[in-house]
Amino acid sequence: MATDVKVPTLGESITEATLGQWLKKPGEPVKADEPIASLETDKVAVEVPSPVAGTMGDYAVQEGATVSVGSVIGRIVDNGAAVPPAKAAVEKGDVNPAGPGETPLKREDPHAPHAAEGTQDSALTLSPAVRRLVLEHGLDPSRIRGTGKDGRLTKDDVLDAAQEAKAQQAASPPPPAAPEPVQQSAPAPAAASAAPAGERREERVRITRLRKTIATRLKEAQNTAAILTTFNDVDMSAVIDARAKYKDLFEKKHGIRLGFMGFFVKAACLAARDVPSVNASIEGEEIVYHDYVDVSVAVSAPNGLVVPVIRDADRLSFADIEKSIAEYGRRAKDGTLTLEEMKGGTFTISNGGVFGSLLSTPIINPPQSAVLGMHRIEERPVVKDGQIVARPMMYLALSYDHRLIDGREAVTFLVRMKEAIEDPTRLLIDL
User: Fold this and answer.
1) Is 42 a catalytic residue?
2) Are residues 39 and 152 in the same domain?
3) Residue 156 is a catalytic residue
4) pLDDT tens, 170-213?
5) Contact predicate 350/298, CB 8 Å
6) pTM for this structure?
7) Residues 303 and 366 in one domain
8) 218-258: per-residue pLDDT in tens?
9) What DSSP line would sit under 14-77, residue for residue?
10) Which of 117, 309, 360, 367 could join 345 in a cystine, given CB atoms 3.0 to 4.6 angstroms apart?
11) Do residues 18 and 8 lie in contact, with contact meaning Cβ atoms separated by under 8 Å?
């Protein structure tokens, strides 16, 4: 007897998704509610749990296929039933475990030394990014311990293994020179697998549903809104001094580090009170003004940029804001953000400075009307009291919809933020 696995409800207005990855192979044991597949929706990745305990049966669809809510994607076979034929096909190598369109990986020689338990299956299924890193560093994926789901390899696993290999190579003394005949008859394994000099490679990877949605929304913003960007710079000395003075006490009391983002979120909420159009949006023939500030914080995730929302940021404390940002960042990396956590938002903050960006013109996130771009902090010469001094400066960029926000309002908003960041006391006395 077999039980169908169906696509669960994915959220409001979402009727289909892409089957991103099978997490269980045919013939593997499955527990009830254990994730067996990962679906890519327009915003997040959603895991499909097994409805019953048993053995993974045949796939009804392959990776990369578009599936609708309620459609059957696979089957779970009772433990007492015979192993499905697909199991044997995988064992023979007739089925490509890496999925359609991917380069199949050869199984290990049964007589070769085995990797640690739990890593052999992960060596069979590598994402394009992981496969690229493995090839670049010349590593054997079967000898790397995976920390992802079901022991699968992640990019961090490969990078850690590469660093360890370099450290071992640096620490090891050079091997003694072998006799000349041995060198000629037994070339090093690396030389045999090295790519020919000058070879140019290409890799074609199916674009993810999330990336297609990001591209569509960004192009829609450019086509619809009259986007303009205004800039200012801010002296970060006061914020840096405040963090240095209170970071230990703050972390001891609240259990979270005091970062820069909390200051900018609070400053943006304060500036939005003076310039409410920055926190508004256009809906048809109406302008919608909000008496609350829901700040969307752009976070980098493995499959693209996501923007979880800090609700009622204008009413939260520094500690609550920092906790929310840290939690969203962790869950974005793990791919566990929910659709509800990314819905809405009245204003967006994007921190490109963490990647080293000096200056940028961010694109607004519809239906929002403005987005603030933060950038890296670097010491630059500025004039203070008639003297040229070095100060830690940051460029701020505000991209806005000129249909709703005038240039005077945009500049005023940035000036209010600059004043609050350079004198954080304003954040406490609401000035």
Assistant:
1) no
2) no
3) no
4) 666 555 554 444 444 444 444 445 556 778 888 888 777 777 77
5) yes
6) 0.61
7) yes
8) 888 888 889 999 999 999 999 999 999 998 999 999 999 88
9) --EEEEEEESS-TT-EE-TT-EEEEEE-SS-EEEEE-SSSEEEEEESS-TT-EEETT-EEEEEE
10) 309
11) no
Cβ neighbours of residue 163 under 8 Å, at least 6 residues apart?
Answer: none
Residues 227, 332 within the same domain? yes
Look at residues 33, 68, 95 and tell me which one is the last residue of a structural domain: 95
Q: CA-CA distance, 383 to 389, in Å (whole number)?
A: 6
Active-site residue, selected from the candidate residues 140, 248, 334, 402: 402
Residue 137: which residues within 8 A CB-CB, separation 6 or more? Answer: 158, 161, 162, 165
Last residue of a domain, one of 52, 70, 95: 95
Q: Is 133 exposed, middle or buried (0-12, 13-18, 19+ CB in 10 A)?
A: buried
Q: Are residues 291 and 388 in the same domain?
A: yes
pLDDT of residue 210: 72
User: Residue 5 in contact with residue 73, Cβ under 8 Å?
Assistant: yes
Closest CA to 401 of 230, 217, 232, 213: 230
Q: Which domain holds residue 20?
A: 1-95
- The CATH number that applies at residue 138 is 4.10.320.10
Residue 242 placed within a domain: yes
Q: How many helices (H) and strands (E) does the chain have?
A: 12, 19
- The residue among 67, 59, 69 whose CA lies nearest residue 18 is 67
Identify whether residues 276 and 378 lie together within a single domain: yes
The domain tally of the chain equals: 3
Q: What is the mean pLDDT of residues 352-360?
A: 90
> Tens of pLDDT along 89-100?
344 444 444 444
Q: Is there a single domain that holds both residue 217 and residue 156?
A: no
Set 4, 248, 334, 406: catalytic member:
406
Mark whether 87 and 129 lie in a shared domain. Answer: no
SS3 assignment, position 281: strand
